[in-house]
Amino acid sequence: LSLTGYIQACRGLMISAVCLGFFGAIFGLVGMKCTKVGGSDQTKAKIACLAGLFFILSGLCSMTSCSLYANRITSEFFDPSFVAQKYELGAALFIGWAGASLCIIGGIIFCFSIAENSNSAR
């Protein structure tokens, strides 16, 4: 495909974000207390923290991709010498930023769940 470099970079970052989010969801499912897979509570807490790390990385990849594309669109829009068709920021970018933020927040919550599990005495 003959796409420009920044679109290829955005595509790669989004594919990475989807893959990281998939593995984060799998590890999150295994790391929950209500599942029988994964062993002891300490092991489940470490798996949940790993899931949180995957979600944070997924959110960062998605946020970087949306921001890179928005930066390019904005710089082309305000460039007076740019004569090709000009684009504006659309709803998909704002939804992407919101989704990436939620992914990062969810990953942080997953990472803090290890502290809650290690402090509980049984």
Automatic annotation (TrEMBL):
Signal peptide as annotated in the record: none
Keywords recorded for this protein, A-Z: Cell junction, Cell membrane, Membrane, Tight junction, Transmembrane, Transmembrane helix
Taxonomic superkingdom: Eukaryota
InterPro entries: Claudin, Claudin10, PMP22/EMP/MP20/Claudin
Transmembrane annotation, as ranges: 12-35, 47-70, 90-115
Topology term for the membrane: Multi-pass membrane protein
Localization terms from the record: Cell junction, Tight junction; Cell membrane
GO cellular component, one term: bicellular tight junction
GO molecular function: structural molecule activity
Family statement drawn from the similarity comment of this UniProt entry: Belongs to the claudin family.
Name of the protein in its database record: CLD10 protein
Native organism taxonomy: Eukaryota, Metazoa, Chordata, Craniata, Vertebrata
